[in-house]
Amino acid sequence: MNSKNFSLAEAAVVAIVVLMLGVLLVPIISRMRQASESTACQGNLRQLGALTLSYTSTNGGLLPALRTSYGVRWSDALVDFKLGLPAQVPGALAGQSRQTAEQQYALLLRCPASAMKVQSNFGCTYAANPNAFGSSHNPGLIGMIQRPSEIIALGDANQNAQGNAACAFSWALRQRKYMMPDPSRRLPVDGRLAAGNHDGGPVIGKGDSGLRYRHYSNGPTSGAANVLFFDGHVDAMYFGGVREMNIVTAY
Length: 251
Description:
Elements (H helix, E strand, L loop, with lengths): L1 H57 L15 H10 L11 H14 L17 E3 L1 H4 L18 E5 L67 E6 L4 E5 L13
Antiparallel strand pairs: 1-2, 2-3, 3-4
């Protein structure tokens, strides 16, 4: 009887220890997963940075347009360039070229920490700095970027209902002639439509403030966004940490 009672007590102690270990390990495992996703995301951005530099070297210093009149986004242009194809909308590709392009999008242009599934084979969860990349009628020149180590090129962006990001952040409003940039001024996180750190909206466009702070996030007002700077380095910018100096190419 005593032996049985002792065995039951021992089993209870073991169960309690296992439960406590589980409680302790859950946040550790979660943190490790978040770190792994953030590292993979930063690797994507580094590769995109190298590809962008190669693109500009081949195209007289011109950056890819945010979106051309034919619907070719900067992401399309970079993938086409990597595959040795003329810049075109990815849907125009066929056969092996289309399959290879789909693989490049899945590998390079989607943050592994994205909460929403990208429904399109050519969907992207990163956006570009409109003050630098420009349009097809007024393309950006990489040589005009005065402080490449401070200026954001690409970064984590909000996803719309289909899981895609807008091609550009809504930072162009910050560089109009009548708005004198203040280098130290922080950008509002929520933006004009309060979509600064939110996924799943029906449309993400000019009202979106920019970065999506999806890494190490415990809620809508915390976390970090991975960003690529024009000198090629990648860093995590924490909630509310973006300043005018990070988005305006000249002041």
